[in-house]
Amino acid sequence: MKPLSDVPQPGQRTLLIPAMLDDHFPLLQYAFHSRDYFPVILDQGQGAAELGLRYAHNDMCYPFHLSLGQYLLALGSGAYDLENTALLMPSAGDACRGSNFTSLIRKALVQAGYPQVKVLTLNVKGLEKDQALPLHPDMVWRALFGLFYGDLLLFLTHQTRPWEAVPGAAEACRAQWTARLAEELKTGRGLTLGRMRQVFAQAAADFAKIPLRPGPRRRVALVGELYTKYCALGNWDMVAFLEGEGWEVAVNGFSWYLLYYASNQIAAGGPAQGVWRGLSRWVAGLQQDLCRALADHGFFTLPPFPAFQREAAAWISQDLQVADGWLIGAEAAAWLRAGCSRVLAMQPFGCLPNHVCGRGQYAALVRRVGAGKLVSVDVDASLPRLGVYHRVKLLLEPWEECNPRPTP
């Protein structure tokens, strides 16, 4: 596998990618490298939503305004050669407003004075094939490792950082592992399934050695749309806020979404459905290896996707397949049943699947599960953060009945 460079090479365009998966993109970014493109993950957040609203109607979902604003901030910064820069917009490609993102971005670029900047899409539905990011086997293989290593570090950091006896110990351990794994992804060395399983066990062992403070553990689960679940920009730094209030934040891994999407949108029909189902079973096997390695060292996850999907059938209809669909309610029910007595659902304004498939199910889910509290909050450029934080604090109190760490 060819090593990757840390700087753009002659003939490569800079490929700007908006913030989306904070725990995964530091490693998953290496999957976007190609002969023609050099990826840059954007992190500008100040003023992104307001700038995005200048060039898009306010009935678009909040993640679109943030992504568009990040693109425009980067293009207007003077840091990039506009004649040699392109934008990448990953999209699920199903019946969701996200399918319109690329066309609306192109319209906004013309209005903002950047008509020469190319917009590429990344989806598995075949949308805009002439504008799709070309994929190669090396890119897909690196993406597989970035996916699972991102899940691994997400679980380990979230379950260690709030209780560490020495402040900064968990972040230091994560930084060490991120640097080590980034080197393997860049060089292409060690990208074998045997090495992946070895990393699962070794990283979990390293985090398990971090001294923790004694005392009860308060735990709140975070569910919702991808951008507001995995991105600090999208959820207004909610993980940092909750940890500052003395809570551990349980967030499910991105591989569950990948397998959910494959089972509903890809493997559900078409001439290649048998191939996709076989690939999904194989990826689910790797996910099971991840869950087992974490459990062996005292960490916990929701059940691997096949078991998760079977159990979810008792709590929510799996006919809700648009965008995040039944996964939102299924994760909420699974966390409540696993011992998280509090669940926070973060929903971006304008995301209809979250409001219909998510909020429309919450009251019934809590009644069926018979335990815990579930509160949903909206995030939008027009809303004050303070009001959202106050609503979240109402979810957290009282906390005395919070259960111990869920059994792996």
Notes on the protein architecture:
This protein has 408 residues and is an alpha/beta fold. Among the domains are: 13-135, Rossmann fold; 216-252 and 302-408, Rossmann fold. It is built from 15 helices and 8 strands. It has helices at 25-28, 48-54, 62-75, 101-112, 137-160, 169-187, 193-208, 226-230, 238-244, 254-266, 273-296, 305-312, 325-338, 352-369, 385-396, and strands spanning 13-17, 37-41, 85-90, 118-122, 219-224, 248-250, 342-348, 373-379. α2 (48-54) crosses α3, α10 (254-266) packs antiparallel against α11 (273-296) and α13 (325-338) runs parallel beside α14 (352-369).
- Pairing-aware structural class of the strands and helices? alpha/beta
Give the CATH topology of the domain at 216-252 and 302-408.
Rossmann fold
In CATH, the architecture of the domain at 216-252 and 302-408 is 3-Layer(aba) Sandwich
Helical fraction? 40-55%
Radius of gyration: 21 Å
User: Quick check: average pLDDT?
Assistant: 89
Note poorly predicted spans.
none
Strand order of the largest sheet: 2-1-3-4
Q: How large is the count of helical segments? A: 15
The proportion of strand residues reads: 5-15%
* Inertia-based shape: globular
What is the straight-line distance between the termini?
36 Å
Q: Largest beta sheet, briefly? A: 4 strands, parallel
Give the total of beta strands: 8
The ordered string of helix (H) and strand (E) elements is: EHEHHEHEHHHEHHEHHHHEHEH
| CATH class wording of the domain at 216-252 and 302-408 | Alpha Beta
